[in-house]
Amino acid sequence: MRQTFGLVLQGLSTVTLLFTQLLPSQAHPVHHSSDAASPPLFAQQQSVTAGVPIRGCLARPKQNPPEPNLETQFIPGALTLERFRQQPGPPSVSAEAAQSNAPQAALNYIAQHQPVEKIALAHPTNFGERYLNDYQGQPAYREPIIVLHETVISGPATLRLFQTNHPKNSQQASYHALIMRDGTIYYLVPPDKRAFGAGTSVFASSKGDETVSTNPSLSASVNNFAYHISFVSPQDGRQSSRSGHSGYTNAQYYSLAWLTSKTGVPAERITTHQAVDRAGNRTDPRSFNRSGFLSLLRLYPKTNEVMIGCTESASSRPLP
Ligand SMILES: [Zn+2]
């Protein structure tokens, strides 16, 4: 199926058919109700959502952090979607969309549809702080990037993995957001916190190589300024070989465009795990249709409802 899709895309001379390719078959209006296709929430979620992760970042990591390095403080309260993104405005299309040759059906879908959003906070061992300075005291702020992934395992298995207590650094992993096959977005880590989505990694930008070391015992990575989003892989994507991967659903692409349009991150700073990986063993997301995604992204209005950045003003807390 992936090969067929690729061949079709290569043969297109206009983006019109591309949009048709990416148009969800079920174009329905705004809805927030849970649906049968979504996995259930998990019992262990209750114990980790007893509080709300405090907002903001820290000045500098500890020189010799213990395992696990649990610096995130929780304040009492109910964890709501607003901890992950500001209340979004009603669905709408960008000003640019009117000038595009996107089919009306795609524009109608975007103007009427808001993805289902759910919370499944990662266990506190699986995420940490963003820092203004690296462990040596050098400035660590970089403009945010978005790093795209795929899970390889199922959506429910991914949620269980991230909600498991992982006391050792080598076990810890998380994304900020997970996009299910039906387009449902699960928020796992607040955007101002550091998800552990990449190991040894560098973002090669027009400014040069960007990476930050926040732990002297671990390799430098992009995690301090990255917002990690992952697609749940198709069944055939759970094999290790690159061939036979049927790719991601249209609903996943639309949800990704909806979410990334709210981060303020420009297209040139949206990258993949494969592109930033320097360990040499990451190839995800394997079947990502970047050109189709960018065509979709242009149709969404750009806002800053998902606050990724770690700024001086955010760091009012003293080091623990
Ligand atoms: Zn990855």
Question: How would you sum up this structure in a few lines?
Answer:
By secondary structure, the chain is of the alpha/beta class. Helix content is 19%, strand content 13%.
Describe this structure in words.
The chain has 320 residues and is of the alpha/beta class. It has one domain (2-31, 43-61, 86-311): Lysozyme-like (3-Layer(aba) Sandwich), CATH 3.40.80. Helices cover 19% and strands 13% of the residues. It has eight helices and twelve strands. The strands form four sheets. The protein has a six-stranded mixed beta sheet. The chain has a two-stranded antiparallel sheet with strand order 1-2. The protein has a two-stranded antiparallel sheet with strand order 4-8. A hairpin with a 2-residue loop joins β9 (203-205) and β10. α6 (250-260) packs across α8 (290-297). It is globular. It starts with a helix and ends in a 23-residue tail after the last helix. The model is unreliable at 1-18 and 25-48 (pLDDT under 50).
